[in-house]
Design brief:
Helices cover about 85% and strands about 0% of the residues. The protein is elongated, with a radius of gyration of 36 Å. It has 3 helices and no strands. By secondary structure, the chain is mainly alpha-helical.
């Protein structure tokens, strides 16, 4: 059987115990901070804010893409309007507004 005798002096053993106590105290402090309700709420809030920011960012990119696509249908590369597409849409919009106005006027009578 191997010799398992401790060859440290009592002062070395006490110093080792003090080091381990300090490490243990630090670990317990870290655990206390992690499980504190304010820390948990702060982490949850940060996660929600991050998710909302991510979702809003993706929505912004998508809306910007759609607007660019629609603009591309009505404007040439040089920035001039495509009248062959703008005029029919304008006529439809004016006609729709006119029909809504007539419908509202008829309901009031």
């Amino acid at each position: 059987m191997a010799d398992t005798a401790d060859t440290r002096t009592p002062a070395q053993i006490e110093a080792d115990i003090e080091r381990r106590r300090a490490v243990l105290a630090e670990t317990l402090d870290e655990i206390g901070v992690r499980v504190h309700p304010k820390t948990i709420m702060g982490d949850a809030k940060a996660k929600v804010v991050s998710n909302v920011d991510h979702t809003l960012g993706r929505a912004y990119v998508r809306v910007n893409s759609v607007v660019s696509d629609v603009k591309g249908q009505f404007v040439d590369e040089d920035g001039s309007p495509r009248l062959e597409r703008v005029v029919p849409v304008a006529v439809l919009v004016v006609g729709g507004v006119g029909l809504l106005a007539l419908g509202t006027r008829r309901r009031r009578r």
